[in-house]
């Protein structure tokens, strides 16, 4: 058991510290504020590079599983810590999803192995439905998301980065607050006898809608998990099922996004790697993976409980506050 030593010279399990003693939302705020004060110098020492790698990895690992746009948080932190331009930080934010993909593959390994069995000839109806869902959502995501990414990257040099990030964050904040009311309303309907929808109830059109909304998340400031979960909640999908399906679809979308950054905007990735170093990049991905493994299980369990209403509302407030800060101060 990994232990964490407190200022009171006592030890408690690290998992309890991350989730109970130090709530993830406080950790997220501390990391962002810390990154703002740690400005990069031209001659970064290897120790500072590793420190920045840990910070960026933690920010990616925490924010990927919250509906607050992980790439936006990486844009902000890597701009301050590594001195990247908006374009470079935007690309780096998508590339850094590699770490959370590894965590998701580990967590959803049974579902992914089930998809492999279907490709090898399994007739399991639930797994076949999951494969159809993943294929449709991924294809539509690519059709919508790839052009949006290329357009956003081409406009990045001349666009006002504060507006490019701040306005979508504001919109996202209000959407999340709306989600909280929607979850509360749908659960009240369920208690009155209304039936939640599951994966088996999703139609081809539903999958296309989820894929299209996931593609829109290629834009800076838009949370992939936030917008896809919102879309499924509007379809009356059960909250914990919506989170699960969103995370599963995100595996394939994130792999495609990372590949697109290397193929289409390799120079931006190279600039980020030059600032953080290959060892630093590897460390950031490892930290992101480990952090993600703590949070996936936690969020899916919370989604099935009444606390998700308060969690979603709090995240909405954080997103609105972040958007206002970006617009007011260009942070």
Question: If you had to describe this structure to a student in words, what would you say it looks like?
Answer:
- The protein has one domain.
- 78% of the residues lie in helices and 2% in strands.
- It has 15 helices and two strands.
- It has helices spanning 14-21, 24-37, 46-63, 70-82, 86-95, 97-107, 109-119, 125-156, 161-191, 204-216, 224-234, 239-264, 266-276, 278-303, 307-329, and strands at 3-5, 11-13.
- Helix 12 (239-264) runs antiparallel to helix 14.
- The longest helix has 32 residues, at 125-156.
- Residues 1-24 and 40-44 have low confidence and may be disordered.
Work out the number of β strands. 2
- Cα separation of the termini: 38 Å
Number of helices: 15
Low-pLDDT ranges: 1-24, 40-44
Described by the principal axes of the CA atoms, the overall outline is: globular
Percent helix: over 70%
Mean pLDDT, all residues: 77
Gyration radius (Cα, Å) is 19 Å
Order of strands, main sheet, comes to 1-2
Largest sheet report: 2 strands, antiparallel
How many domains would you count in the coordinates? Answer: 1
